Amino acid sequence: MIRHIVMFSCKDRADLDGIYSGLSVLTQIPHAAVLEVSHNEKIDQLANDIDVIVYGEFATIEDFRAYKAHPLYEESIRRVRHLRDIRVAADYTVENATRVPV
User: Fold this and answer.
1) What is the pLDDT along the chain (102 residues), one digit of tens a residue?
2) What is the edge-to-edge ordering of all strands in the sheet holding 34-39?
């Protein structure tokens, strides 16, 4: 399984809803086992620059690639790119992740 985590910040706080709704388009793409879009609750006391998070799980790398190739993915980029400041993404294979203390 592939986990895909992307974090966004707003250029202007007035655009937060536009970023959230633009990213929410991604939930309509059928290739993810799980796809969530959420506001950052900013519970951590340090480095709260991130405003919106996208979290996805994909059964295979092929599903992940199909998700990124879907027309709604491009639509989301079109709606969000000009509004966002920071975009940080991380992808990893769950089976390769450390789950117990080494």
Assistant:
1) 999 999 999 999 999 999 999 999 999 999 999 999 999 999 998 889 999 999 999 999 999 999 999 999 999 999 999 999 999 999 999 999 998 876
2) 34-39, 52-58, 2-10, 84-93
Torsional class of 10: left (φ above 0), alpha (ψ -120 to 50), beta (otherwise): beta
Question: CB under 8 Å to 2, separation ≥6 — which residues?
Answer: 57, 58, 60, 61, 63, 64, 91, 92, 93, 94
Helices of type H across 1-102: 16-24, 61-69, 71-80
Amino acid identity of 37? V
Q: Report yes or no: 55 and 38 within 8 Å, Cβ to Cβ.
A: yes
Burial of 97 from C-beta contacts in 10 A (0-12 / 13-18 / 19+): exposed
CB-CB neighbours of 67 under 10 Å: 20
